[in-house]
Structure prediction request, 256 residues.
Amino acid sequence: MEEIIRSHLNEIEARQDVRIFYACESGSRAWGFPSADSDYDVRFLYVRPLDWYLSIDDKRDVIECVVEGGLDISGWDLKKALRLFQKSNPPLLEWLGSPIVYVERYSIAARLRALAPDHYSPLACKFHYLHMAQGNYRDYLKGDEVRVKKYFYVLRPVLAMKWLELGLGVVPTDFNILVDRLVDEPSLRAEIDRLLAAKRGGTELDKGPRIAPISDFSERELAHWDTYKVAGRKKSIPVGALDDLFRAGLAEVWQT
Prediction:
């Protein structure tokens, strides 16, 4: 599959006249809880030729390519990525921290990672993860019968908020790191491990009875965030630093 993915990325470069400098897996495979039949969600960052940026027209800054066979590929232009990076966009930070990397060329992705610890906004990330956890809990995990696999989509953002609350830095993409660092309650850890093993083994985790240790933990954490003011100041990276990175990235890729 990696060869197929790289082949599609090469085709995109040729067809779209771009240079892909970073491509990775996102979603459940990157988070560490894929099913045997999980789709491949490939995300990439790219640059256009210099003249593309020297235009008064607003142009499309996203490339999307849905391929048959459970393969979804999409990417963002460098300028779009930098604007979102300035706002501490969590999906972009997760891409940059993905444990599954298909392409990494030039120094742009490494420079972004180097900027993140000092300049990202924990507050912006907390709002993102809180919204995700609340939505999934409300839609799938209320009542005695639940959508079992959706536990992961509440646990991961809840643990991400806990990570941020403890001041541990940029949230790791891998769910297993969050669990190892933050879950010390034996019954909760046992149920999480059981669910992970079942999901990776191909068990269909559809509707089932409420799992008390996971539900109780999720409810406690969400109740905490209902009463806890998400305080702080939204930070943004100085635009000058990102302008410098943008210019340097273009120069490096096109050797100007």
Q: What stands out?
A: Strands lie at 19-26, 40-47, 62-67, 71-77, 101-104, 145-147, 207-209. The longest strand covers residues 19-26.
